[in-house]
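I have been asked to look over a protein record a colleague put together. Alongside the sequence sits a line of tokens, each denoting a local backbone shape. Please read both lines and tell me whether the tokens look consistent with the sequence. Take the sequence as given and treat only the tokens as open to question. I have pasted the whole thing underneath without changing anything:
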Amino acid sequence: MARILVVVDYQKDFVDGALGYHGAESLLPGIRDQVEAFLAAGDPVYFTLDTHGEDYLQTQEGKGLPVPHCIAGTPGWQLYGDLAQYHGDTRVTLVEKPTFGSVELARLVQERQGEGPHAFHLMGLVTNICVISNAALLKAHFPESDFIIHGSLCGGGDRTLHKSALSVMESLLMQVLP
């Protein structure tokens, strides 16, 4: 079963920018180690990028969460810390998404890695919004694949919602690592 790493929205605005929270930066070493290990093994790595335009505040999301963030091309849109080196790196796939989950991600995985089954490893931000949305979309598209959620490499500003999202992903038959 082929392994696939998906790093969800580990971008500057979610770590120390517009929607950042204390502690998000501490995920960087673990996420970096996973990316390097997957690349060294020749396994595919996908980064999702929350991507909005200048009209963000006029969108449904912008009306519900009126904090401009991850505006395409701005520093806050970039991958955080030294993960920014992967912008333009042909060994990884960057998937821009205008909302919480990405249908495009599933399409690209199917196109490049086939129907599976796969072993998806997910991590990133925010557990109860974008991580769970992408995990559920991938699970719906690849129902016979394994899903490993790296709980200690996920996070969000609300610890209770983080834990609840991990529990929901477990109920969707995903393995949640501590």
Summary: The domain at 2-177 is CATH 3.40.50.850 (Rossmann fold). The beta strands are 2-8, 45-50, 92-97, 118-125, 146-155, 175-177. The mean pLDDT is 98.
